[in-house]
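WARN retry 2 of 3 for item q-0093 after timeout on previous attempt; input resubmitted unchanged.
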Amino acid sequence: MKIKITLVFLLTSIFSFAQKKILEHSDKSLWNKIKTEAISPDGNYVMYTLEQGEKDTYLKIKDSKAKLILEHDRAKNGTFTYNSEMALFTINAWKDSIIELKRDKVKKEDLPKDTLGIYNFKNKSLLKIANVSSYKTPEKWDGYLAYMLAEVKSKKKPKDSLSEDKKQDTLSQPKKKKKGKKVNKKNGYHLVLRNLDTQKEDTIKFVTHYTFAKEGHRLAYTTTGDTANLKAGAYVLNLENNTQTQIFEGHEKVKYYQLNFSDSGEKLGFVADLDSTKVQERPNELYVWKTGDTKANPILNKDTAPKGYRVSADGRLNFSENESKLYFGLSAPSIIKDTTLLAEEISSVEVWTYNESRLYTVQELAMDRDRKKSYETVLDLNTNKITQLGSLTYPNVNIGDEGNSNVALISTPEPYYLESQWTGIRASDYALVNTTTGETKPVLNNMPGGMRLSPKAKYAYGYNQIDSTWISYNVSTGKLINLTKDKVFYDELNDSPKYPRSYGVAGWTTNDKEVLIYDRFDVWSVNPDTGEMSRLTNGRETHTQYRYMQLDEEERHLDTDKTWLFSTFSEETKHSGYFKYDAKRKKGSQILEGPYKYSAPRMAQESTEVIFTRSSFTEFPDLRYSDLSFKKQIKISDANPQQKDYNWGTAELVNWTSLDGKPLKGMLIKPENFDPSKKYPMIVNFYERSSDRLYDHKAPSFGLSTINYSFYTSRGYLIFNPDIEYRDGYPGESAYNCLMPGVTSLIAKGFVDEDNIGLQGHSWGAYQIAYIITKTDLFKAVESGAPVVNMVSAYGGIRWGTGLSRQFQYEHTQSRIGGTPWEYPMRYIENSPIFNLDKINTPVLIMHNDADGHVPWYQGIEFFVSLRRLGKPSWLLNYNGEPHWPRKLQNRKDFNLRMSQYFDHYLKGAPKPMWMERGVPALEKGINQGYELQEK
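OK item q-0093 returned
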């Protein structure tokens, strides 16, 4: 009987497994992503949004036991009130209705506006308020909500066909009165203040800006005024006693900027432009209001600002934590245009100069930022003294101790911009400035790496990239210490011709007593004055990496009287987890660990409950709920239950030795129904090192540039992703030496169809593919996306996305040549596939877009036209106007379909699609796609 039951169970299991579906392209749109997850301040509720492809979003609210409280379609951007009694979110119009309106040529401003949803947990009611453009709630108190009503345009009535008599009657009517003031961006919108306890609402008309204080019960707003009841100006509303004060009175054309409270709400600052003319140099003025003042006090204007500067409308305005100081921005004078000149009278020439600190292309991309550039300045609210901190000489400012400190760290990279074009190093000169006197004291020149102030501003610290050393500078004594000299706190695996990066810092302990610095595996406590250090963790022995997890968003230092949470990651097994560390006793224990990838937990504001995710190749990163012991985990979401219906895949770690004798790791992804006695087609997809992502979940999607692992394994492919280690000057050869023995080691296992192996990669991966296929005919077909094939021409190019020269990339970073073409001409030639394209016998699919800002489009053109000249089977996909990857959904769908048709044809013997046979002629672009498969 037992045998029969077992047999029945086995047959049932086999039948059930056999029913699993194979992923199709159309199935990719079924998968949800979890977005904007939030935990309520009291830790009792979790809210998140499901986003399914390009469809409408879906918001869910659940309690701590995963019980569904509310779900709503088309909803997103959820937040909780501070008392956790309500949830707020926006509700969009149906996407398909918007699409139809767009088809009907409806203007953007006339499309349906968002609705605000307010869910009350106490009475389980949902209130919807239509036409809301924005909303705000207080950060550290509750009871109120403010929302801005969007402009609602009424539909125009069709004109009547009037008879002559009616026309005469109409003409004889008295003229209509002048229309009232309109709600719009210029005049402002109506702001509604809602008492969430009483449900009472007050409407304030024509509001342009509004903000709540973080802790004090106050609301500030500016309005262009309602002539009947409300004067134009700035107002502060005290919600504790419901009193309103007009702190500034101006005409309706006054423009306001940077309206901001101190945390307590006792002080308010803003910038105002009172000039109603179109003068190019805007005469901005700074105002400050304090509780008890009847009006805001003018502090600075165009006449009283420091010479050569003016009050900035773009510089962020904020108060120090102790509210004794106000920080704001000064900007350099505007460059004035001659508006009397006609366009044909202006020469449109670019003048590029050899010794300019920044390339013209960089300047061009930075124009808007440069126009808005402001220099940090501080107002002492006790003495009204103004001290300029940033300047043209030292434009960058790091404020200490949340603005309370009497020193700030200032810096300038300007002297080193030019050489960074080829070194790739961002060096700066640093100095300290006294925030009261303005006295400046140089600290360090030509520091190759960033520096900043410790939380209490007792030290300036940073990582010297050239010396590969952490340094500290005692602000009081002026003593400079090399904290990690002759110790390995730099990247041990650096395989580029550049100075190694650091592993970063965890932070500083209370009162700047110690700085916690990472090495490859461990966390070290270091005395900033002596460099004495102690190891807090024991990761090196087991090749386990420990990193601090900040749970409190407002944490400024690590409290040594508390328990800390570290993440752990094993370089050997790729397992991750959490580690509890008692900072007082200096002891810890592993509280969670396994063959998963764990996310950084998000903790509730007013409790110790957290939400986090756990994932693997087979497990979607659903939200989980727990306390900090992580003993009892509750799975909150179930975003993709349909996955169980599909043939999926498994991921495993594989090992081999490179041709250089280096032990290497990689990922092998197999179909779920893998049979080791069968042979499978395999696609090799790679970049640099990827094995650390073994437990990443790869949901089906229309990806930007790479094969989708779950899609291809579901369809019977193996996927191999090998780690690559590089030798300076020989990146192509290094890729060959690492990848080829990895592939052959898998072939030796007997389940890889060695006659049907493909290569796929993008950008740097694509370059390596182009190089490899000039050296071997092992691969049946390759896809190479945005490749560099000519390092000589690429060296002299521009990265159009940033405007930077590409020189540093070849001399010091990813391309790894290690010098200039005139220093190492043969390295550039030997590593450039363009010089060996005649040796390629592998079909090549190239994807390279004409708006690529990373790799110049002409590289893909050089590759394709040369292969075409040689008569090699090759195809080029160019998605017009797209950058380094196709971003538009229709283009991503197209690329994914064509790539799968291409590999299916070569690696599985599927029929060839028409686009591969005859292309898509220019006359048919956008009309006939050529997806149709030819009959065999």
